[in-house]
Amino acid sequence: MKPHIAVVGSINMDLVFQTPRMPLPGETLMGHRFHLVHGGKGANQAVAAARMGAAVSMIACVGDDANGHSCLQALQADAIDTARVRVVPDCATGVAGILLDDAGQNSIVLATGANASLVESDIDAARSTITQAKLLLCQLETPLSTVLHAIQSAKQVSVAAQETGQEPVKVVLNPAPAQKLDAQVLRQVDYLVVNETEASLLSDVSVTDLPSAQAAATVLQQLGASVVIVTLGAMGIWVADADQAYSLPAFQVKVVDTTAAGDTFVGSFAVAIAEGMDLRAACMFAQSAAALAVTQLGAQTSIPHRGAVERQLQSL
């Protein structure tokens, strides 16, 4: 059976401007092309999880506008359950303005819109969805208090499950956009997936390479995170659990657009863990998916399907 994953997170419409380089302050720069692409870290990770083979439920908010309706249709096209996505009247769906340069690097500005309307009562209304899930996946593009309430709900389920001999709900947190979290939060996270910026902010260690990623991961584990994964783009990833720590290299591919590469990694990793893969295998699976994502343009348009990920792994 497909593992059930509940995703609490954001849904956005991405406005993507392709440009030769990033504009300077006050400069008007002629771009190449413009695209509307479905996005949002929560939705991207949900789509990645669905395309990797999970049964996915989305807990989120959209506005009662054309972008919101389009985003819902896109999620449903990937067989994602949207019953717990609340449509907020008189509110715009979240929007991301993305500048993508010829080197494949991006800069992003967010207007949160309806994502800011996701509240604790939405989590309470979706409690059965979280209870029945194998894994809860969260990010920080929705209010922090709501995300923490969702994590606490999953942990309450886990405590009750242990008392009855059932399997607990695992929590994967991708704390992006980066913001400070206290140790009490980190102690409730089974898998913490961070990039350089997020690792640096959370650990107070400047992360620029694998040795500094190792140092940051050690601090985050001391603060309470069980497993820490630091993603470093072309430098690969640093992985640390209770027993060992090691690096894994990035796949060598031609980069077209890095948008949603991290989301693809996180969503794919969540599925691998929910299926019972060991940590190293789950990370390699997620690395393969993220590498394929950067070879395509856009957010959800770039997320690969499982068959392509497995074929790339088999070719190693």
From TrEMBL:
InterPro entries: PfkB_dom, Ribo/fructo_kinase, Ribokinase, Ribokinase-like
GO molecular function: ATP binding; metal ion binding; ribokinase activity
Residues reported in the UniProt entry to bind ATP: 195, 231-236, 262-263
Chief site of localization: cytoplasm
Catalysed reactions listed for this entry: D-ribose + ATP = D-ribose 5-phosphate + ADP + H(+)
Modulation of this protein's activity: Activated by a monovalent cation that binds near, but not in, the active site. The most likely occupant of the site in vivo is potassium. Ion binding induces a conformational change that may alter substrate affinity.
Cofactor note: Requires a divalent cation, most likely magnesium in vivo, as an electrophilic catalyst to aid phosphoryl group transfer. It is the chelate of the metal and the nucleotide that is the actual substrate.
Binding site for substrate: 12-14, 40-44, 141, 263
GO cellular component terms given for this protein: cytosol
KW Ribosomal protein (keyword) present: no
Any one GO BP annotation for this protein: D-ribose catabolic process
CDD domains found in the cross-reference section: ribokinase
Catalytic machinery residues: 263 (proton acceptor)
Protein family membership: Belongs to the carbohydrate kinase PfkB family. Ribokinase subfamily.
Subunit structure: Homodimer.
NCBIfam families: D_ribokin_bact
Function statement: Catalyzes the phosphorylation of ribose at O-5 in a reaction requiring ATP and magnesium. The resulting D-ribose-5-phosphate can then be used either for sythesis of nucleotides, histidine, and tryptophan, or as a component of the pentose phosphate pathway.
Protein name stated in the entry: Ribokinase
UniProt organism field: Undibacterium baiyunense
Name of the gene encoding the protein in the UniProt record: rbsK
